[in-house]
Amino acid sequence: MNEVTNNNIKCTLALTALHDVYDPEIGLNVVDLGLIYELNFDDAEKKVTCIMTLTTEFCPMGESIVDNVKQALGATFPGETIEVNLIFEPAWNYDKISEEGREFLNG
Amino acid sequence: MFIVSGKTAAIKTTSYKVVLPFYVYAAVSFLVATFFLFFNSGTFLNHYFHPHTLAITHIMALGWGTMIILGASHQLVPVIIEGKLYSEKLAMASFICAAIGIPLLVYGFYYFKMGAPAKWGGRFVLVAIILYLINLWKSISQSKSENVQAIFVFTSVLWLFVTAALGLALVYNFTYIMFPKGSLHYLPLHVHAGVIGWFLLLILGVGSRLIPMFLISKYQNIKLLWYIYFLINSGLVGYILLFYTSSLEVLLFIPIAFILIAIALFIYYCYCAYKQRIRKQVDDQMKISLLSIGMILLPIILISIIIVMLMSFSINKTNLVLSYGFLIFFGWITAIILGMTFKTLPFIVWNKVYHTRSAVGKTPTPKDLFSAPVFKWMGIFYIAGFIAFVLGITFSILILIQIGAILLIISAALYNTNVFKLITHKANNNE
């Protein structure tokens, strides 16, 4: 798993939700694609921060993927502030695809 | 509350409102061109410098090839240069100028009215290209990333400008004496600046980025791409210099060899990307696009035969020149567009319709937005029509030309069916 977190229980819930967010070109979810770098949960501030990337900068589907990540997390943690922090360092590469993702692409 | 922080500019893509008109214009042009092929089939038994042939060539080169490439590139340039498109207004202005100019130019050629219609058509097309060039230059200069693909794209648009400027000068040459010889003499320069400089350079540059991306391949070889870049440009410049300075046709094999080596290297590049792909399944759209790369070799082989015949003096090469042009515009350029349209347009439409819906409920994938059987039949009719038409021109058999044209009309109609199915797609309320 690529992701880093400070709350394993909430992280599992978040990842389950993010498994339903797909890169429509590749047909793989953003978790197995390795786009999610970090998930932080601030219970005091009621805030979820997702640090993620895209397969390429200015990816034509980028805005849609980010919007869907926000919505999936918002539905899982209602009432909490959802922040998606988009970074490109470290850049995404094919080694970030999970074993499950590779099996899916080989299928 | 939702917040997006970090590099948020990296998710702002070109609006579909800018891109879709180019696709629609191109799709209609393709259909119109195939009808022109059928109703002017007898023209293909005559000399290639015929008003109707010129009209069809320009519908294909500008209305079909250039319009769809301009549309797709407004969407893809940000991916390639890793920067935002400078201006959507300039893109729209470029579309409007081209959309007005192309029919005027085609009308001018068809009825051979080299006065106002052709001149105004040429001027509008030239302005459209200049606007695109400015947009591209400003976009690249604002981008932090300099890469070989961006250089390919920018150089190709410079060649497009040279092609259009020379084309307009050739139109003027019919009414004012601008060149020492007639326009027919300079036609090969105009054609090859467009075909090699614009289409080939651009398709290879963009393809070198998109083919590994769509195959999900780790393969990268920047050095090889630079070799390809220099081979194509030096081949083209060499051809122009030889055209002006040498009367020895045999020397033309030197630039042809350069281009041939560049294409062979690009095929090798695609092969390596294919071998190192992570996604094992290759869809039909990619298959037809990869096939089109191989189809580039056909006109190269044919032009070599034409030069050999030119040197033998006695053989009539008119039908071979027509076949050469057909192999280029209805061959590899059309094949790659047929494939790549359905690798790009479904995503543009999907993004427009399902932008914020895919995490809420089940949504179709981009591939579900067009009909796969219609795509398959489009491909079958296209290949059958292409082969029949080429054989018809090469061996001057009118009935084969007509059968080929009918098959191509069906293929173009199926292409339009899928394009209009895509652009009129609306989300089901249950989705």
What's the SSE blueprint?
The complex is a heterodimer of chains A (107) and B (431).
Chain A: E1 4-5, H1 8-18, E2 22-23, E3 28-29, E4 36-42, E5 47-52, H2 62-76, E6 81-86, H3 99-106
Parallel strand pairs in A: 1-4, 5-6
Antiparallel strand pairs in A: 2-3, 4-5
Helix pairs in contact in A: 1-2
Chain B: E1 2-6, H1 16-39, H2 51-81, H3 88-110, H4 116-142, H5 148-172, H6 183-215, H7 222-245, H8 253-275, H9 284-295, H10 297-312, H11 318-354, H12 372-394, H13 398-423
Helix pairs in contact in B: 1-2, 1-3, 1-11, 1-13, 2-3, 2-4, 2-11, 3-4, 4-5, 5-6, 6-7, 6-8, 7-8, 8-10, 9-11, 10-11, 11-12, 11-13, 12-13
Describe the structure.
The complex is a heterodimer of chains A (107) and B (431). Chain A has 107 residues and is an alpha/beta fold. Chain A contains 3 helices and 6 strands; from the N terminus they run βαββββαβα. In chain A, the strands form 2 sheets. In chain A, strands 1-4-5-6 form a 4-stranded mixed beta sheet, with helices on one face. Chain A has a two-stranded antiparallel ribbon with strand order 2-3. Chain A is globular. In chain B, 75% of the residues lie in helices and 1% in strands. In chain B, α1 (16-39) runs antiparallel to α2 (51-81), α3 packs antiparallel against α4 (116-142) and α8 runs antiparallel to α10. Classes of the chains: A alpha/beta (107), B mainly alpha (431). β6 (81-86) of chain A pairs parallel with β1 (2-6) of chain B.
